[in-house]
Backbone:
């Protein structure tokens, strides 16, 4: 193991560096650290495998020992953690640590697997034993850093007291790589292509902050390895179009049941990068040690909701600092309804219109089923014997929603390429939470087809608000009975499970609608749209190209329906804003709402 502390040798332009770096340079200019000023440390940890992980440490403005928070990722945390100064000001020593084979760390970049967890556990135990540490360690961060927390905690490292995995994935095939078995040719590949630039930036900062001259050579080597076939994770994803041992090796959800420490997770239902599914890993954890904050989709890289920040502070104070603040008695589930942007571009503060709280997971819901009919309606009455069928053309351009380069929800441009089913006006509010399922009887003129279902709210102000989307490749319809429930289909997605359609033959498909929370107001309607998969956030789909006519059957022998998890919850009376509600854009409604009275909540 190698550890060192280095101060910058000469001052540089402060506007180009972080707060921590500026403080370190000021200390160097004065000949050493002043009393009660932050101290920056950095170095390399030598793993039992011989690999060396780059780390950086920022200590609070005080003397003594401190509780520790670690950000562990494959970006540049070992040079400069993104969590930065706020946690130092809360009295924590903040450690940034780079995964082996990433940034300035040597070794093979395994991306996500058991070896990443083992290296993270080594880093935790090292931090717990440092002279500036009081032995209590927590982990923080979102996305990559969130996923790595789960791998690390499953290793049970000594000193790790709690983790806060935010906005991550744990079942990378189903969560992001192949939603519904359809290749996601957008975000995963674009994400992987960004690493050379990120790592070169880490090397520049290591030289600028710490005069670390060895990092640049390591970064060059890591980039070269990542571009070879055996090291190119994007290429490996494409080489494994079915769920197989490669995906199981990278699925933390198969290990999260081993975690025995408190966990606080945050999830965004319309997350434009990793989606909302997260492998449903929270179900594998002990409910008494698990807390969850869910919201509509604030940006993947944002943690701007004051409620989220404050909850994280109390959670970490309780379980890492050891404060007796009563956090263990707080509700284990908080749902931030209709999180909206505060409007300040420089320092946005996201606020919900209301908050629903529940004592523990799972949140109790009651399945509510609505049937599709040939009049384009969603009703609470089962299909009639002569219910008929409706056709749409495939593939036709589906509507793009939450494209980061063009915010909003695009209008439909191919009316013959979609079917819509809408309830009559609701007499009272319907609040839904969790996953749902579109259970469709479909026949096609092709042996395979890709399906997208979109749930939306048609409002009395003439706007249609986006709620959630799900996808399925019809040949991947086989379900795993050990995980499938009425509200959540769980597809096998193995090569052995793939089965083509018989053209013209009705076949039942269950399309997962990933988890969400939304209140449909009185006077609004619930709508389901069926069409061709289209860009959603950063996700783009490698759809099947074959032309087809797809038919949705609607008779009593083939009753197509959707089922959602109903649960009454507090909500604001007013409709949420179409302009400030995060990741739930609106567009003008162009399909008439059926006459009559919509369904009531289930008894």
Residues:
């Amino acid at each position: 193991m190698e550890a060192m502390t280095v101060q910058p040798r000469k001052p540089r332009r402060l506007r180009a560096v972080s707060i921590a770096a500026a403080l370190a340079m000021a200390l160097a200019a004065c000949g050493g650290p002043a009393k009660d000023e932050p101290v920056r440390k950095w170095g390399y940890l030598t793993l039992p495998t011989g690999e060396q992980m780059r780390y950086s440490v920022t200590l609070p403005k005080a003397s003594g020992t401190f509780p520790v928070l670690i950000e562990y990722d494959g970006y540049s945390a070992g040079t400069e953690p993104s969590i930065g100064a706020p946690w130092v000001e809360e009295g924590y020593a903040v450690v940034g640590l780079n995964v082996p084979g990433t940034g300035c760390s040597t070794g093979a970049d395994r991306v996500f697997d058991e070896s990443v967890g083992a290296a993270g556990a080594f880093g935790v135990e090292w931090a717990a034993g440092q002279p500036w540490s009081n032995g209590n360690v927590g982990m923080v961060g979102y996305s990559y850093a969130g996923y790595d927390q789960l791998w690390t905690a499953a290793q049970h490292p000594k000193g790790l007291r709690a983790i806060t995995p935010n906005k991550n994935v744990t079942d990378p095939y189903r969560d992001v790589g192949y939603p519904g078995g359809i290749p996601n040719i957008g975000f995963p590949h674009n994400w992987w292509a960004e690493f050379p630039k990120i790592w070169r930036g880490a090397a520049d900062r290591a030289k600028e902050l710490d005069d670390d001259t060895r990092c640049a050579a390591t970064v060059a080597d890591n980039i070269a390895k990542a571009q070879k076939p055996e090291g190119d994770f994007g290429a490996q994803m494409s080489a494994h179009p079915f769920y197989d041992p490669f995906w199981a090796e990278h699925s933390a959800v198969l290990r999260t049941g081993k975690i025995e420490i408190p966990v606080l997770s945050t999830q965004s239902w319309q997350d434009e990068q990793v989606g909302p599914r997260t492998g449903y890993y929270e179900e594998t954890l002990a409910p008494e040690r698990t807390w969850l904050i869910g919201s509509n989709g604030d940006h993947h890289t944002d943690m701007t909701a004051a409620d989220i920040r404050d909850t994280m502070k109390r959670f970490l104070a309780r379980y890492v600092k050891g404060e007796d603040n009563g956090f263990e008695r707080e509700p284990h589930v908080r749902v931030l309804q209709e999180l909206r942007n505060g409007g300040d571009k420089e320092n946005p503060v996201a606020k919900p219109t209301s908050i629903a709280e529940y004592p523990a997971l799972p949140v109790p819901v009651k399945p509510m089923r609505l049937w599709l009919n040939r009049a384009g309606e969603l009703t609470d009455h089962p299909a009639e014997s002569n219910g008929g069928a409706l056709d749409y053309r495939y593939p036709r351009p589906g509507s793009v929603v939450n494209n980061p380069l063009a915010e909003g929800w695009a209008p439909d441009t191919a009316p013959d390429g979609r079917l819509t089913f809408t309830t009559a006006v609701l007499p009272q509010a319907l609040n839904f939470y969790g996953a749902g399922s579109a259970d469709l009887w479909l026949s096609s003129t092709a042996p395979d087809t890709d399906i997208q279902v979109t749930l939306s709210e048609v409002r009395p102000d003439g706007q249609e608000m986006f709620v959630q989307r799900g996808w399925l490749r019809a040949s991947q319809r086989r379900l795993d009975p050990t995980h499938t429930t009425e509200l959540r289909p769980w597809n096998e997605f193995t090569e052995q499970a793939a089965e083509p359609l018989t053209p013209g033959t009705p076949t039942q498909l269950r399309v997962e609608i990933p988890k969400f929370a939304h209140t449909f107001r009185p006077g609004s309607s619930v709508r389901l749209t069926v069409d061709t998969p289209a860009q959603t956030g950063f996700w783009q789909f490698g759809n099947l190209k074959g032309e087809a006519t797809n038919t949705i059957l609607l008779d009593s022998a083939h009753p197509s329906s959707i089922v959602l998890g109903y649960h009454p919850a507090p909500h604001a009376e007013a409709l949420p804003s179409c302009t400030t509600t995060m990741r739930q854009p609106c567009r003008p409604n162009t399909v008439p709402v059926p006459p009559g009275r919509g369904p009531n909540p289930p008894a």
